[in-house]
Amino acid sequence: MLPKHSSGDGREDPYADFWAPDPTDGTWRDHLADLVESLTPRAGRPSRLPRAAAALSLVLAATSLSVPAAPAAAAAPAAPVAPTESLDSLLERADALSEEYNGELRDMEAVIAEAEQAQERADATRKEVDEAREQVRYLAVATYTSSGLDPALSLLLSAEPQEIIDTATVVDHLTHTNSDKISYLVEAMERDEKAQANAEEKLEAVEADLDELEARRWEVRRLIADYPVQQMGPPDNLTPRTRQMRDLIIEKFGRNDENGGVGCYRPNGGWVVGEHPKGRACDFMVNPNGQMPTPEQQAHGQAIADWAVEHAEDLGIMYVIWRQEIWDIRRNNGWRPMADRGSITENHYDHVHISMF
């Protein structure tokens, strides 16, 4: 594992392994020059630190730093880009589509989990930037306004600083005093830029996934019409369709009781509430101890999964989960990866899960 990145003030950067920017050769004065624009008023937004920004420009000039001048003519604004839908809005769409499509969209778990993780990182890096920026703003106010000049800066701006101390010494003092805060802010902004871009990318993936499913609305409606809702009943609290599927698989592959057997109805759905409480799902175990199955056990599970996919349309099978992958007839585009739930059983390595319409 890569070493954790130090922020320079004793804090450890938890995102270093993933977001660490390339090393920069600039000094704190170079970075401060880049920050002038962020502290300067922008069109339509009043500056919170007008005096600080002006004084900051003066100081940069006094220390032989050039602040990039504004271009003579502003470039034409780019065409507005439609913002990506928020994660909350996408989750609401997924819930609504699950209800409309007569069952959970379990094949979307992976893309949704990635989007949620990316959003958490983006929120954390944005908070980090806000905190670091506030420190630099405070530094700018305390150092560059007339009411709170840093003693060393007072020397630098005095009429005859050479009579008190050599200017180079003052600059060196400022470098050692302020470089950590400014460098930390610059790096935090770089991390945040990457985190925000990654979150946007993951949200776009969820949105594209939902768009694809919604485009298949009529195909899914035809499937649902072919498999009207059935009520579960005795003696096993299953729907007739689920009972038929279970019995056919047992007839072909056996109950496999020595490896856990077959389980269908239960009053709760387990890790995610699904079709089990509705009498519309069965688990076909291949290992009884929550361990990774042997090659022989795995081959048995694979045979069941393949058979279920082959006969899905005939039997009204909605989706099959096996070895942390899902096949869903409503999407009908092959096996897709699922999110890591943390254990062999929760990731369906020791059993085949089959849900029905």
From TrEMBL:
Residues 1-25 are annotated as: Disordered. The keyword Metal-binding does not apply. InterPro entries: ARB_07466-like_C (IPR058593). It comes from the Bacteria. Residues 236-349 form the ARB-07466-like C-terminal domain. Keywords: Coiled coil. Gene3D superfamilies: 6.10.250.3150. It comes from Thermobifida cellulosilytica TB100. Residues 1-14 have a biased composition (Basic and acidic residues). It holds the Pfam family VldE. Residues 87-135, 189-223 form a coiled coil. The keyword Coiled coil applies. This is ARB-07466-like C-terminal domain-containing protein.
